[in-house]
Design a protein that fits this description.
Elements: H1 3-12, E1 21-22, H2 23-29, H3 36-44, E2 57-58, H4 71-88
Parallel strand pairs: 1-2
């Protein structure tokens, strides 16, 4: 794992349960605002998904972007997290 990948995973760990952020947001947090594509490539290599929640990172236009095990799984993980939050707030 590269230093950049470790840094990306550290930033992604800051994204709260049930929320999403863009690849560009992660890149800006790393002080590398032009690195959104590199962030996506690092997340595609994430060996610790979903524990390092790369499923919480989406495209800047609000679309899901990609996910190494498929977009259906990404949608399901996000849905479960949002449902857990709703249940907690009841």
């Amino acid at each position: 794992m590269t230093k950049f990948e470790k840094a990306v995973y550290g930033v992604v760990m800051e994204i709260p349960l049930g929320q999403t952020r863009s690849y560009g947001w992660v890149a800006r947090r790393l002080h590398r605002p032009q690195s959104a594509r590199a962030v996506g490539n690092a997340l595609n290599k994430n060996p610790y998904a979903p524990f390092i929640p790369c499923h919480r990172v989406i495209a800047s236009d609000g679309s899901l972007g990609g996910y190494s095990v498929g977009l259906r799984k990404k949608m399901e993980l996000l849905r479960r997290e949002q449902e857990a939050i709703r249940q907690k707030n009841l």
